[in-house]
Specification:
- The complex is a heterodimer of chains A (77) and B (364).
- By secondary structure, chain A is mostly helical.
- Chain A has 3 helices and no strands.
- Chain A is elongated.
- Chain A starts with a helix and ends with a helix.
- In chain B, 74% of the residues lie in helices and 0% in strands.
- Chain B is built from 15 helices and no strands.
- The longest helix of chain B is centred in the first third of the chain and has 34 residues.
- The chains are: A mainly alpha (77), B mainly alpha (364).
């Protein structure tokens, strides 16, 4: 519970800190990327503190590279 | 230009030096020695030669576009969309690398120094400092590295000298007991952990491009010497069996320091070396990833990305491994192959495509 509140407070603080800089720069692209990343980050952090299993890039890398990696390991061991 | 800072060739050398030591000094001895037993030092030597060859490749690429970063000339060489795709792939590799480095420090701190502290807290504290450093820009953290270098050198010399009397030369014999194969495998793994490709993002900010090759080589070599000395000390003092069974043998090594029953328990002081070097390794790779993403996405300021990606970085560093067994399975067996795509295949392809393009269009 407290960790979720913590995540939300930190996210709010980051948004409050960056918005004036973003409006001063007048770049829509910067704003879109920032908004996209902060939504992903906040969601991931909240789900993480609820102990939800998040998608893990290592699983994908394992699926693609493990056969070759194990082959190298076995043939040189 | 997103980054207006300039660093000197000497600062570049120091950054490469700290980057080489980084996490490697903690994880390399155990990983290499578990495969090769007492021949671990030979693997580090061969791996170091491979790293220096890779620096020649990177320099050949960087010298063709001396005022551009990797992310920028990806687009120039491969065209706009394919270039952006390749560059974002490289940046995602560097970003994942940053998360894994963070996890290495977290694991080290929670197993050896602060077992009661939640790992998330350590990650958040480190990321906060790293974000601060990255926001201040390349000039600031390069100057910091100059201030920190004497501390690291003095502590490392102290560490090596105080262990000299514990050395037993018999522990390194017999040489090549298990033949060449495991030695070669371990040197490949060692090479895959020295991700010097990250520095392609920093080269254009060195004020004299003609000195880059020399300082890049120098930093790689000096960092390699530190790694070689620490793995030799591990084998000579702890023995290959004990080194292979330890998760962080260099830390166990520091616990062996005992001068006349008076100077003892200096391992936390020695751990300062690892923490400083790892801080620089994480800062450099985080900076490179963020700058590259900002350039590929065409943003006006890379600093916008630092805070939101910082949250993602902390979450990612927690989810990448469930436990230490996952980590041992993944690093280096699978990671080494994945790293080769970004460290060798893509730079080599970029160089080839660029050479062919310049042959086809001699006028430009």
């Amino acid at each position: 519970m407290w960790s979720i509140i913590g995540v939300l407070i930190v996210t709010a603080a980051i948004i409050a800190y960056e918005i004036p800089k973003l409006t001063k720069r007048r770049s829509i692209r910067d704003g879109v990327v920032f908004g996209f990343l902060i939504v992903i980050g906040c969601t991931a952090a909240v789900l993480g503190s609820l102990h939800v299993d998040l998608p893990n890039p290592v699983t994908g890398i394992n699926a693609v590279f493990k056969p070759l990696g194990s082959m190298i390991y076995e043939s040189f061991k | 230009m997103l980054e207006k800072g300039k660093i000197s060739a000497r600062q570049f050398t120091i950054l490469v030096f700290l980057f080489m030591i980084g996490t490697s000094i903690l994880i390399v001895p155990s990983m290499v020695v578990s495969l090769t037993k007492q021949d671990g030092w030979i693997s580090v030597l061969i791996g170091l030669v491979l790293s220096m060859l890779s620096v020649l490749l990177y320099y050949a690429l960087a010298a063709r576009y001396p005022d551009k970063t990797l992310a920028e000339y990806c687009e120039l060489i491969l065209g706009k969309w394919l270039g952006k795709l390749v560059s974002l792939f490289l940046m995602s590799y560097i970003f994942l690398l940053t998360a894994l480095l963070l996890r290495v420090v977290g694991n080290f701190m929670t197993t050896e120094i602060m077992p009661e502290t939640p790992i998330e807290v350590i990650h958040i504290l480190i990321v906060a400092v790293v974000i601060y450093a990255v926001r201040l820009g390349i000039e600031t953290f390069s100057r910091t590295s100059e201030i920190m270098l004497p501390v690291i050198l003095v502590l490392f010399l102290l560490f090596a000298v105080l262990l000299l009397k514990e050395i037993d030369m018999e522990r390194i014999q017999p040489v090549m007991e298990w033949g060449m194969r495991p030695v070669l495998l371990a040197s490949f793994y060692f090479f895959s952990l020295q991700e010097l490709v990250v520095f392609l993002m920093l080269v254009p900010y060195v004020n004299r491009i003609d000195k880059v090759r020399r300082s890049w080589m120098m930093g790689t070599m000096l960092g390699g010497v530190v790694l070689l000395v620490s793995i030799l000390l591990c084998i000579l003092v702890l023995g290959s069996d004990f080194t292979a069974r330890n998760m962080y043998p260099t830390y166990t090594l520091a616990k062996q320091i005992n001068v006349a029953n008076f100077l003892q328990k200096v391992e936390s002081v020695i751990a300062v070396i690892w923490l400083i070097t790892i801080f620089f390794k994480i800062t450099i790779s985080y900076y490179a990833a963020i700058l590259g993403m900002a350039q590929s996405l065409g943003l006006k300021d890379y600093r916008t990305l630092t805070l939101p990606l910082g949250i993602i970085l902390v979450v990612l560093s927690i989810v990448v491994y469930k436990n230490i067994v996952d980590y041992i399975e993944f690093t280096p067996r699978v990671w080494s192959v994945y790293a080769m795509v970004s460290m060798v295949v893509i730079p080599l392809l970029l160089l080839l495509v660029d050479l062919i393009r310049s042959k086809l269009k001699p006028s430009t």
